[in-house]
Design goal:
Distance between the termini: 44 Å
Low-confidence stretches: 81-92
Number of strands: 3
Structural class: alpha+beta
Order of helices and strands: HEHHEE
Strand order of the largest sheet: 2-1-3
Radius of gyration: 13 Å
Mean pLDDT: 80
């Protein structure tokens, strides 16, 4: 166990933030983020979050506003390959 990571929920939320930052850096406009944590996905879709990871959820929501469309979606883990924590589909920019 890594003592610098508070929980698996923090890791999932950070993966969302990193995915959104990457999509933004690459110039994508339409993003669908799929994650295997139902709890994090529900928090990202909720209007208000008072959990221990609320700061991460807030950051992810703020980043998501930079896209024309951004959708968060739960996908059960069996939908992933062996070494992926988070998959995202990104639509390439037209330019």
């Amino acid at each position: 166990m890594n003592f610098y990571i508070a929980s698996s929920f923090v890791v999932e939320a950070q993966a969302v933030i990193y995915g959104l930052q990457l999509a933004s850096d690459l110039g994508f406009h339409h993003v669908i983020l799929e994650g295997d944590s139902m709890s994090v996905t529900l928090k990202l879709k909720s209007k208000k979050d008072l959990s221990k990871i609320s700061a991460f959820i807030y950051d992810a929501k703020q980043l998501s506003r930079g896209f024309s469309t951004c959708r968060f979606q739960f996908t059960p883990q069996e939908g992933y390959n062996d070494f992926s924590l988070l998959w995202w589909w990104l639509e390439a920019p037209l330019n």
